[in-house]
What we know:
The protein is of the alpha/beta class. It is built from 7 helices and 6 strands; from the N terminus they run ααβααβαβααβββ. The radius of gyration is 20 Å and the shape is globular.
Amino acid sequence: MLEAASTLVRSRCLRNRHSIIFVALDQEEQGCLGSLEFVRSYLAPDFPQGPQGAFVLDTLANWAGAKERSQSVPEEWDRLAPEAARSIREHGERVSTYVRTRLRFQELILDHSPILQGDFLGIVTRASSPSESRLSASFSRFHGRLRPDRFRLEHFDLRGLPSDRMPNLGELFSHRYFWRSDNARFWYHQEETNGTSVFKSIGAALITDTGEKRETSSPV
Length: 220
């Protein structure tokens, strides 16, 4: 993170129209207390209209490359993020076809399920948030300048989570995998102002390797 910040400061070819704040947040496993304090004590009072948006990075280095069966896709992803689930499976189908063709004269393949690979980064946003749509498009554009053939990008565009109100318990429970990182504290913040509860939502895109859904990994 510090190296990325240093590179931006030293770069002469990049001129930002907005300030960029790099923040290392702690106590994510204890309820995202670090991000809660950052939003509550810094962003909310100093940026009453909210920042342009935030990229939240959580587990990025578990890239399994060409390792077979290194990614799992829970069934609920088919309902909550159908495009991403379908894309991951279709990529697995192409890999499976290649492997079966390569080994068609050998009796080594007994399981004909898709060979899902953990060779992508996921970007998680709420479909109802215009700022998160901009964040996703911007990240995708710059990602395309790298090695998209090797480091794929999968978009988890969540249609079932609101951006204009606090979600109800049913919405939270069904999407529990996607909001348990620090992005949740940006997405949903409620504070008391003069005895009145005020809801705020800051656009944030979660960049992740899908964490424990990435079964086998190798550092990059």
